[in-house]
Specification:
single chain, Beta-Lactamase
C-alpha cells in the first residue's frame, strides 16, 4: 500500500530511516540512521544502500523488489545475517512504499536498526538458562572480541565496564596446569569445534583463588568456527568441600590399609552384608566366593 510522504521530513525523524528510489539509491536519510550505523558524515544521496551500508545482506534486494512490485510492506522483529567474512549482524526492519506528492514518484521507506548487541545479550542469557549455570560469555572470532555477562564479570571480580579480550580471559586462570588446560581447550575449540566442560581454578582481579565450572561450545559457518559461547559458574565452596572429603577418605583408607583394619556394613532392611577388601583378606576369603 502506497503512503504519501514528503522527503523533506526524513532528515529530522528521530529513528533510523532511509528512503530509496526504485534502483535502491538513497534519496534521503535521517541523522539517527547515520548514528545507528556509525556511517561517516559524507553525503550518501545517490549511492545505493548496499554501497552506503556494507553490512546489509544482498538478500534485501529481493525484499525491496517485492515491496515495489506489490505495493506492499515488509517487516521483521529481528533476523541474523552472516556476511562474506563470516561476521554476523542482527537487523530489525520495517519497509513500506511511499508516494511523493511533489512529483508523484514512488520510493521505499526503510526503517532499519542494528540490534546485534541486544540479541547477543539475549543469546547469552538463554544459554545460561539452558544449562542452568550462572554467567555467560562469548568469543567472537571474526570481530576478535570477547563478551562477558555481568555475573561472569562479578565472578572475576572486575567492574561492569570491564572489556576483556581472549588473552586476558585465559590469563585469569591459575598459572600452571589450569592455564595450560584452558589454553588447550580453547585451541581445540577454535581448530576443530570441540566443546568442553571442565572445573579449573582462576585467580580473580582481587587475587582470590577460586574454583569455577566452565563450559564452551562453538558455532560454525561453512566449517569454520566463528564463535565460542558458554557458561561460567563459581563452584568454589562445593569444590573445596568435595576435595576435603576426598582427602579425608584417602587418609582413612591409608590408615585402615596400614593397620589391617577391615570395614564392613550390614543393611538390616535388605539383609545384606558388605565388606571392604581388607575384610576379605583378613578372613582369607575371595570376594567372588562370598
Amino acid at each position: 500500500m502506497k503512503t504519501t510522504f514528503s522527503q523533506s521530513l526524513v532528515k529530522s525523524i528521530a529513528i533510523p530511516v532511509v528512503t530509496l528510489d526504485i534502483d535502491f539509491r538513497i534519496i534521503e536519510y535521517s541523522n539517527a540512521w547515520i548514528s545507528e550505523f556509525k556511517i561517516p558524515t559524507t553525503d550518501l544521496r545517490g549511492k545505493t544502500i548496499f554501497e552506503a551500508l556494507p553490512i546489509l545482506p544482498g538478500s534485501f534486494e529481493a525484499i525491496f523488489k517485492e515491496c515495489l512490485a506489490n505495493n506492499s510492506s515488509h517487516s521483521s522483529a529481528g533476523e541474523k545475517f552472516y556476511l562474506a567474512d563470516k561476521s554476523f549482524h542482527w537487523l530489525k526492519w520495517d519497509i513500506s512504499v511511499l508516494s511523493n506528492p511533489e512529483d508523484a514518484s514512488v520510493s521505499l521507506f526503510v526503517q532499519l536498526e542494528d540490534i546485534t548487541i541486544r540479541k547477543r545479550e539475549e543469546e547469552l542469557l538463554l544459554k545460561a538458562e539452558k544449562v542452568a549455570q550462572i554467567g555467560g560469555w562469548e568469543v567472537d572470532l571474526i570481530a576478535n572480541k570477547v563478551y562477558w555477562t555481568d555475573i561472569t564479570k562479578a565472578i572475576h571480580e572486575v567492574p561492569k565496564d570491564f572489556v576483556p579480550n581472549l588473552e586476558e580471559g585465559i590469563n585469569f586462570y591459575k598459572p600452571g596446569k589450569d592455564r595450560e588446560k584452558i589454553t588447550e581447550l580453547v585451541s581445540n575449540a577454535i581448530a576443530s569445534g570441540t566443546p568442553w566442560d571442565t572445573e579449573l581454578q582462576i585467580v580473580t582481579a582481587k587475587g582470590r583463588e577460586i574454583w569455577v565450572h566452565a563450559k564452551g561450545e562453538t558455532e560454525q559457518v561453512d566449517g569454520t568456527v566463528v564463535r565460542i559461547v558458554g557458561t561460567f559458574q563459581d563452584i568454589d565452596a562445593t569444590k573445596k568441600a568435595q576435595l576435603e572429603y576426598e582427602a579425608i577418605s584417602e587418609r582413612l583408607q591409608i590408615a585402615t590399609d596400614g593397620a589391617k583394619v577391615g570395614i564392613w556394613d550390614y543393611d538390616v532392611i535388605e539383609n545384606v552384608l558388605i565388606w571392604d577388601a581388607t575384610m576379605y583378606s583378613l578372613y582369607g576369603i575371595k570376594e567372588e566366593d562370598f
